[in-house]
Specification:
The protein folds into three domains: about 350 residues, Alkaline Phosphatase, subunit A; about 80 residues, no CATH class; about 110 residues, Arylsulfatase, C-terminal domain, CATH 3.30.1120. Helix content is about 30%, strand content about 20%. It contains 20 helices and 28 strands. The strands form nine sheets. It has an eight-stranded mixed sheet with strand order 8-5-16-1-17-20-2-21, with helices on both faces. A four-stranded antiparallel sheet has the order 23-24-25-26, covered by helices on one side. The radius of gyration is 24 Å and the shape is globular.
Length: about 625
């Protein structure tokens, strides 16, 4: 066994010993009397196959089909908690997925479909999850990525609307140099103001706090920076995405591979951990994070923490120690065939043309896969550190605790279907398990695996119920999800299907998935405006809705689109009708949000009320 594997095994065993020593007597005795401290962890662009425990329960193997993965700390959560292995996102894109989690509502019920800014002043809006938690007596804290682009209107103008009582701006952390990489408007360089600010300039931060900007525009304006972009790309071994027939650009294109300029623990995610642990250990009224001041913990209130990691989202920059180990591994690169391409819907073909990677060299494909899984392994170590700190804090105060771990706001492709990125309805984009670990082992048993479908809208009602809220009351009828505790004990309604909708990168497309099939289709004609032609997808010619259908029990990798196969005609039609009636006709909301969330024009559609009943008979 390799030395680093032994080290990880030893660490895992030591952590398990600590967990076993956490006697349930204190927590379970107080669970019915006290509200638990709650830690909600969300990672970003995280494929489920980066975790050995998920691979075991889903595929019966420990490693990814692509090759070696490493996840001792998430595996530990699986061992001591309850795993919902068939959890799916509602939109395989960051912002709408994170909004769905925070609002407890499907995109078609909130009107948030992609990266739009939106406001909370409209009649259908309800308080976000952290705002509801304050009503339940919690103090709320956020650090890391949030991705909830919410505003409020004051005198008709959009303004910032903080939803957590205490929140650390990760953008300010970047500006303060508390990270390894950032992107921002640059107004001043070397103590001198630029004639015109430079938009969205990426920069690397050295351990000494030196900023190296990746900007050809800056090089033209400041001769002292000439050649620094190329030097940075070489130094950090940067691989950016580039389209077929084009050359890799020195500053454009998402970073798919490279090495962090900072050591492990001092990357942006490493600093998120530092902030969380400082917060938990702080007893003063305030403490500082760079240039930011943060209120300390109120000892008489239960704690609700949202920890939003950036990893393994681009830029994929694992620390050198992790990268070097994973460079020793050789991965099986997913193959993309002409046969698969020919059967793809036009919306998906356009996406692949934009984010395709099958034209990359064999070396480039290996690098992006190696670095992705190395980044995941690094993030796993941070999760372990955060979990240990949170449990130790709660146990020291003799307080019950619950950890809700959400494995990615969606997944990621590594040349699967010939592309990278997310945005599509495939399994690897939308299948993201959840693990709940609690000091209350009766409610969330150790090692339990739940096969039933779960969805991201289940997160808000689950956390609220854990906080003591009675989510059966009228005040919570807006929530679209279920309490995951009830799904685990078998008392929640069983879902025959899950649904989702994606607009970013592909254009408006919805999908419905059962345990045997997944069907997706275009739900809007080209250039249709908000509120227009709502029923189009129900009446348009079949070819026009650009359908896809995969028989997933026979086609595990979803490679053969059978939407036009006569043998599947009845199944495709049933799924089309059910999906269209739900997302378009069961209390749909569309809003002209404007540029910065100032819009208030709302369109409602409710021609098929109650259609979303979780029942779908395909016999």
């Amino acid at each position: 066994m390799k030395t680093y594997q032994l080290t990880l095994v030893n660490r895992l065993l030591s952590i398990l010993v600590i967990c076993l020593q956490i006697t349930p007597s204190v927590a379970q005795t107080n669970a019915s009397k006290k509200q638990p401290n709650i830690l909600w962890i969300v990672t970003d662009d995280h494929r489920y196959d980066a975790v050995r425990g998920f691979n075991k329960m889903i595929h019966g193997r420990e490693m990814s089909e692509l090759g070696y993965v490493e996840s001792p700390n998430i595996d530990r959560l699986i061992a001591i908690g309850t795993t919902y292995k068939n959890t799916y996102v509602h939109s395989p894109v960051c912002a709408p997925s994170r909004s769905a989690m925070h609002l407890g509502r499907y995109p078609f019920r909130s009107g948030i479909y992609q990266f739009e800014y939106y406001n909370n002043n409209l009649p259908h809006f309800k308080p976000t999850l952290p705002e509801q938690m304050v009503k339940e007596g919690y103090q709320t804290f956020h650090v890391g990525k949030l991705g909830v682009r919410i505003k409020t209107l004051k005198e008709g103008k959009p303004t910032t609307h903080p939803i957590y009582q205490n929140a650390i701006s990760f953008k300010q952390m970047h500006k303060d140099g508390l990270t390894d990489w950032g992107k921002d408007w640059i107004k001043e360089v070397d103590g001198q103001t630029l004639e015109e600010p430079l938009k969205s300039v990426a920069y690397f931060v050295s351990p000494e706090g030196t900023f190296t900007y990746a900007s050809l525009e800056l090089e033209k304006e400041r001769p002292s920076h000439e050649g620094k972009t190329a030097l940075a790309n070489k130094k950090f071994d940067i691989l950016r995405h580039y389209k077929k027939g084009e050359k890799e650009h020195p500053t454009k294109g998402i970073i798919l591979s490279g090495v962090s300029p900072q050591p492990a623990g001092k990357t942006r995610d490493g600093y998120y951990n530092r902030v969380l642990l400082d917060y938990l250990n702080n007893t003063a009224p305030t403490f500082t994070v760079g240039s930011q001041k943060v209120a300390g913990i109120a000892p008489d209130k239960p704690l609700f923490v949202h920890l939003g990691y950036d990893f393994p989202h681009t830029p994929v920059l694992p620390p050198a120690t992790f990268r070097e180990r994973f460079q020793q591994e050789t991965y099986k690169v997913p193959q993309f065939t002409k046969e698969e391409l020919a059967k793809l819907p036009e919306q998906i073909k356009r996406f692949i043309k934009s984010k395709g990677t099958d034209h990359f060299t064999a070396e480039e494909k290996q690098k992006m896969i190696q670095d992705y899984y190395a980044f995941c392994a690094y993030g796993d170590s941070l999760i372990g550190e955060a979990v240990d700190g949170f449990i130790a804090y709660s146990e020291a105060k003799k307080q019950p605790w619950t950890i809700v771990y959400v494995h990615g706001d969606h997944g990621w492709k590594l040349n699967d279907h010939g592309a990278v990125s997310k945005c599509t309805p495939w399994e690897l984009d939308s299948h993201n398990p959840i693990v709940i670990v609690s000091s209350n082992k009766e409610k969330y048993p150790a090692g339990k695996v739940v096969d039933a479908f779960a969805e991201f809208v289940d997160i808000a009602p689950t956390i609220l119920a854990e906080a003591g809220a009675d989510i059966t009351k009228d005040a919570y009828t807006y929530l679209d999800g279920m309490d995951l505790a009830l799904i685990a004990n078998g008392t929640a309604p069983e879902r025959d299907y899950i649904i989702g909708e994606s607009h970013a990168a592909t254009g408006p497309r919805a999908y419905i998935r059962t345990k045997e099939y997944v069907f997706s289709m275009r739900i809007r004609p080209q250039k249709a405006r908000k509120g227009e032609q709502i029923r189009w997808a129900l009446t348009a010619p079949y070819q026009a809705i650009d359908p896809s259908l995969y028989h997933t029990t026979k086609d595990l990798k979803e490679l053969n689109n059978v939407a036009f196969d006569k043998a599947y005609k009845k199944i495709a039609q049933k799924m089309r009708v059910k999906l269209a009636n739900i997302v378009l006709g069961d209390n749909r909301v569309e809003v002209d949000w404007g540029t910065w969330g100032e819009g208030t024009k709302v369109y409602y559609s409710n021609f098929a009320p109650g259609m979303h009943d979780f029942k779908l008979n395909l016999d």
